Amino acid sequence: MSASHIPNLNTLRRGGGRGRFRSRGGGQPGDAGHGSHGAKDRVVQGTDNDASVSRLSAVNLGYLDDVFAPALTPPGMEVRRLPIINRGTYVRTTTIDHLVTRFLSAHPSYPKKQIISLGAGTDTRIFRLLSSPTYDASNLVYHEIDFSVNTSAKIKLIRAAPLIQRVLSSSSGDVEISPTNDALHSPSYHLHPLDLRSLPTSPVLPGLDPTLPTLLLSECCLVYLTPGEASSVVRHFTETIFPATTPVGLVLYEPIRPDDAFGRTMVANLATRGIQLQTLQEYASLEAQRRRLRELGLDRGQAAADVDFIWDRWVNEREKERVAGLEMLDEMEEWRLLARHYCVAWGWRDTPGGVFEGWREMEGQEE
Q1: Is residue 259 marked as binding?
Q2: Model-level pTM greater than 0.85?
Q3: Is 272 helix (H, G, I), strand (E, B) or coil?
Q4: Is 367 a domain residue?
């Protein structure tokens, strides 16, 4: 399979006591769908379907264990992805899970921590964490921010999923859903309908605690904004919301290397769907991603690695054998090409020995 026949590569994007669901008043400013971005926003909003379909494909084939994936995939969208896409979904998901786990399990003097997922869509990570037997959900505050059309769709799927409702009720207590059905709030989980571009001028997000060690997640989200807009979103947290004494980290999953033959094909394939990756040229390499993190104030440490490197170096041999046995993957050259054009980058600010210190051993990845 030549590079020109690689499928659309955006498919790698992102997969207490007994409570009750009830409505609440109030809405959120900055709704998507209201404003001048129009058709481009609708294209970006639709990319979440790619993510949920890819996640479900990987789950159904045994790459990932995620009981919530079927409930958060829109009905009628079950599709078996190509083996290289399934493997890429596996590496992305398990890598970010590993970084999240290291963050949550670090430094017992900070038992309670906070995660903010940007452009989360139908991501299932919050429900996997809340149902994990190894983590105390009362020590987690999890926020998701996305266009209102996406948060509304997610709430609709949650309402139709008794399994998810039980997880939320048992771990988070009362769950309040807005009358417009696009916002959800509970002690552990907040779903905010908000256009990220309006975040710097919006009121403080309900439930956000500026004193908690916080991890920001962006899985192919900030890449859709201009470089200036993307930086403004991150700086809103690192410079405005969280004081300098609050430990903050950021994990990015994004495409890279747009200027070789494969990268040009990748960009062209996405352009046929009207998708523009606006930060791609600005942060086209691993070093550019590390520089970006430093410039955003995450100056205690930065690292980046492409998916090919992570598969080779982070996945142990036994797990590689298990994954390789799930499907026949003959086209190793195409897999390496694809895997070298996506990366995970992570950076943090913290005091020595703080909650992010465990990330230091994962620094120094190859260009």
Answers
A1: no
A2: yes
A3: coil
A4: no
